[in-house]
Amino acid sequence: MDNLLSGIHQFHAQVFQREKEFYSDLVAGQSPRTMFIGCSDSRVDPTIITQSGLGELFVLRNAGNIVPCYGASNGGEPATIEYAVTALGVKDIVICGHSGCGALQAMLNPDQMVKLPLVKSWLNHAEATRRIVEENYAQATGAALLDIAVREHVLVQIENLQTHPCVAVKLQRGELTLHAWVYLMESGDILAYSTADGGFASLTGLARHEASQRRVANPRQSKKS
Question: Which of 38, 65, 67, 215 could serve as 160's disulfide partner, Cβ 3.0–4.6 Å?
């Protein structure tokens, strides 16, 4: 706690006072263009890995970057998504998993959750991921299996996200774009999925215009047209 108290004093005396006008402007309200759904893991900070400033990201974090299907959870996730999409009018939603995810490791090894009944219950929302990995990647083990699970899990959460009415409406109108990312802690890189080629590719290894096109295509919008 001492380090937090020290940081609070430093922020108020140095950062806040130096940028007082900026912080005063933030009091008037927020208008982020992007919602970032990520894991609660303390090693993964959305604002740092995207180099975003205050007010630029609307962040939702939980264990395993899980988006329960609409109506499947009474937690804060549905309300937070609805607020971001309907009230704030975000234009992009990023669901970002990460390498070495402890939640997904527990999902793959349920014996680890004997003393964590609430975690076990929460990870029931990841059952689709578990079944996909178990039935389609039986040959994979260890770290390779976890890497596969992380990527498949992000894609399942994208599908779950589309069951939310507010999201479905904006997708059909072409007013919202979905992105599936995986942050690699060991390299600092971010992999992004594209339905154009059906795979993940490094955002930092692509030109800006190519990277911006790596997104999840919207089946509702294409069907409408």
Answer: 67
